[in-house]
Amino acid sequence: MLKILKNSFFLIFAILFLSQCSSFGKKDSEIAKKEGQIDEQPKKKRYKFNTDEKIKDHVEKEGGLIFNKPQKYQFGSRNIIWKASLEALSELPILSASYSGGVISTDWYGESNKQLRINVIFKSNEIATSSIKITSFVRECDLENQCNIKNGSENFNNQIKNKIFQKVKEINIAQVKNN
């Protein structure tokens, strides 16, 4: 008898508990609409768009995907300094070349105990020596692979800049001949 009483009590408790949770099978939104708590809004139409086009538009308008910082200078496909820099550094291993960010960076190269790295930073789209900044680094390692990195000399940086602008002149001359 005690067992039947326990089972009956449990069954009644379960029915009451479940009926309160589900409101007899109605969704919460349906209950709220009946009680006037929610105004019925038209369903929004789903819009499928081309992700690649949206990314391209966003990058062109905003300048980046991650930090939403607009770029000051957009380097077009006709940027002669960009082309000349790549040609001038073509013999070196390029680690990264960010066309939209305006940076070219080489990897370490040279002998095992003395290596060099060059960065070209584009400040503007104008054809002027002030439009780019060259930085270089020299890494010297001893026999125990203890390395010391120093900034390269301004004289060396100016030599690289002169080489780039020599390439700019060559590209300009070639374009004039082709037109």
Q: Descriptors for this entry?
A:
single chain; 179 residues; alpha+beta; six-stranded antiparallel β-sheet; 5 helices; 6 strands; elongated
Structure description:
The protein is α+β, with helices and mostly antiparallel strands. Strand 3 and strand 4 form a beta hairpin. It has helices spanning about 1-20, 30-35, 50-60, 80-90, 155-179; strands at about 95-100, 105, 110, 115-120, 130-140, 145-150. The protein is about 40% helix and about 20% strand. The chain has a domain at about 80-179. The model has no long low-confidence stretch (mean pLDDT about 75). It has five helices and six strands; from the N terminus they run H-H-H-H-E-E-E-E-E-E-H. Helix 4 (about 80-90) crosses helix 5. Strands 1, 2, 3, 4, 5 and 6 form a six-stranded antiparallel β-sheet that branches.
